Amino acid sequence: KAGVTQTPRYLIKTRGQQVTLSCSPISGHRSVSWYQQTPGQGLQFLFEYFSETQRNKGNFPGRFSGRQFSNSRSEMNVSTLELGDSALYLCASSWGSQNIQYFGAGTRLSVL
Amino acid sequence: QKEVEQDPGPLSVPEGAIVSLNCTYSNSAFQYFMWYRQYSRKGPELLMYTYSSGNKEDGRFTAQVDKSSKYISLFIRDSQPSDSATYLCAMSDRFGNEKLTFGTGTRLTIIP
Questions:
Q1: Are A109 and A91 in contact (CB under 8 A)?
Q2: In the prediction, which pLDDT does B23 show?
Q3: Which of B45, B98, B105 sits opposite A42 (nearest CB)?
Q4: How many angstroms separate the CA atoms of A49 and A66, rounded?
Q5: A23, A91 contact by CB (below 8 A)
Q6: CA–CA min distance A102, chain B (Å)
Q7: Which of B3, B45, B98, B107 to mutate to test the interface with A (most CBs of A within 10 A)?
Q8: A103 — phi, psi (to 5°)?
Q9: What mean pLDDT, rounded, does chain B reach?
Q10: Is A60 on the interface with B (CB under 8 A)?
Q11: Between A14 and B8, where is the model more confident?
Q12: Which residue of A has its CA nearest to B92?
């Protein structure tokens, strides 16, 4: 069974640009969560989507948004990039009825 | 103050030693506790999942939860070089809540 797939693996952008990251969950999983990982703050929860609806949201500004498609694939968008957005963005999928999440390898975003 | 505190290390121990990793937390609503392992350039993978207070053992790994002290631990027996990774604790307040709160992680190196 294929794991969680995130694309692209690496991205370099400049301040002010926007970026879209993609996540394909494990087959059958209906919940997709996104996290930001930085050396100082660790993993911080961005949001969770379940059956195309945002079910949970963390404390990030509105520049961070996401969506989920009918096949459970999810995208995350960051607009007006700032230097502080440089991080590893991790996607995790689950059945949606437990706390057990399976993570992808992440997309490393560098903002110059 | 962070909801979950974890000593970032780094922690270096000789092969075969017993490793103790710990997290403290402030939110008494947390009931579900997890330990993840993250290798370099990989996403976190679930090691242990426990509910409420008590111990859980899985092979060389033992997870302990003391809710009265708001303290959780992960013990690794007969440590191996392949255990070298960053270990993350994570918590949730209710079953089915996919929003996990993570510690910042402890970097562990097992010296052959």
A1: no
A2: 97
A3: B105
A4: 8
A5: yes
A6: 7
A7: B98
A8: -100, 150
A9: 94
A10: no
A11: A14
A12: A99
pLDDT score recorded for residue A1: 67
Helix, strand, or coil here: B10?
coil
Q: Shortest CA distance to B3 belongs to which of B105, B109, B111, B102?
A: B102
Task: Look up residue B6 and give its two tokens.
Answer: 């974890």
Place of tokens 């993609």: A22
Written in H, E and C, the secondary structure of chain A is CCCCEEECCEEEECCCCCEEEEEECCCCCCEEEEEEEECCCEEEEEEEEECCEEEEECCCCCCEEEEECCCCCEEEEECCCCHHHCEEEEEEEECCCCCCCEECCCEEEEEC
User: B75, B19 in Cβ contact below 8 A?
Assistant: yes
Tens of pLDDT along A54-107?
999 999 999 999 999 999 999 999 999 999 999 999 999 998 777 789 999 999
